[in-house]
Amino acid sequence: MKSTALITGASKGLGAEFARLFASKQVDLILVARSENELKEIKSELENRFNISVRTIVSDLSLPENVRSVYDEIKADRIEVDYLVNNAGFGDFGDFSDTEWERHEQMINLNMTALTQFCYLFLQDWISRGRGKILNVASTAAFQPGPGMSVYFASKAYVASFSQAIAYECRKHGITVTALCPGPVKTNFGKAARMKHPNGFVKGMNTPSPAEVVAFGYRAMMKGRTLAIHGRLNRIVANIVRFIPRSWQLYLSAKVISW
Ligand SMILES: NC(=O)c1ccc[n+]([C@@H]2O[C@H](COP(=O)([O-])OP(=O)(O)OC[C@H]3O[C@@H](n4cnc5c(N)ncnc54)[C@H](OP(=O)(O)O)[C@@H]3O)[C@@H](O)[C@H]2O)c1
């Protein structure tokens, strides 16, 4: 029987790569984002290349009521979701007090509330049937505070913490939850976050391709791993940072973000 993956933020970047990878595995797709045209292009690309069905839902998930609407739309069509990829998210560069409140609010709603509500809604269905896989896209930003991107770093710390906790709870139900923590990847992220070096994230840094990060995340999800940090250097830094005094963490993090 065919399975279905729901991928949020699938119009570009990591989400679009997740769509391509799931499609190559013959998994039907439900793709959610705001950009209708980009979703349509991905739908036609994937339906032409692979023998799958792709449904697109245009929705702004930073509006809390839309998460429920997306879920209700899927239920109304009796589609059973097997894989949930909570990927939609954005960051913002600048001091907390200098940024418009609406940006913070949208980020909190999208990066945390939408992701949490989708997990909640699908777990209600999955627990009785005893299967399902969730992949929540966190970040290496999860492992220390981020002066200059305070709400974003805090939101990713939430995603990593929340995902690990529910992964533990869900084990007894046969459901896995994976938090994927990429370091910088070349996508539209830097531009959307109004960063200084939108194409390289950190100036001069070699970044992996979205396809490489997504393949890593996909393998981790399929193996049911709880925390998946992409890249050896990122894994080393994420572990070392725990033993560094908090004042140093803040100083170093602020330096890297404002590089
Ligand atoms: N790139 C990096 O360096 C990096 C590193 C670590 C973690 N991440 C995380 O990876 C995830 C994907 O980011 P990306 O790098 O692929 O960035 P991206 O290229 O900017 O893609 C972001 C995706 O989220 C969607 N999105 C944004 N706001 C939305 C909203 N209000 N409602 C619905 N969808 C929305 C975008 O689609 P529309 O604009 O069409 O809505 C797009 O499909 C994010 O959670 C990000 O935090 C990225």
Automatic annotation (TrEMBL):
<dbReference type="InterPro" id="IPR002347">
    <property type="entry name" value="SDR_fam"/>
</dbReference>
<dbReference type="Pfam" id="PF00106">
    <property type="entry name" value="adh_short"/>
</dbReference>
<dbReference type="InterPro" id="IPR036291">
    <property type="entry name" value="NAD(P)-bd_dom_sf"/>
</dbReference>
<dbReference type="InterPro" id="IPR057326">
    <property type="entry name" value="KR_dom"/>
</dbReference>
<protein>
    <submittedName>
        <fullName>Very-long-chain 3-oxoacyl-CoA reductase</fullName>
        <ecNumber>1.1.1.330</ecNumber>
    </submittedName>
</protein>
<dbReference type="GO" id="GO:0016020">
    <property type="term" value="C:membrane"/>
</dbReference>
<feature type="domain" description="Ketoreductase">
    <location>
        <begin position="3"/>
        <end position="188"/>
    </location>
</feature>
<keyword id="KW-0560">Oxidoreductase</keyword>
<dbReference type="GO" id="GO:0141040">
    <property type="term" value="F:very-long-chain 3-oxoacyl-CoA reductase activity"/>
</dbReference>
<comment type="similarity">
    <text>Belongs to the short-chain dehydrogenases/reductases (SDR) family.</text>
</comment>
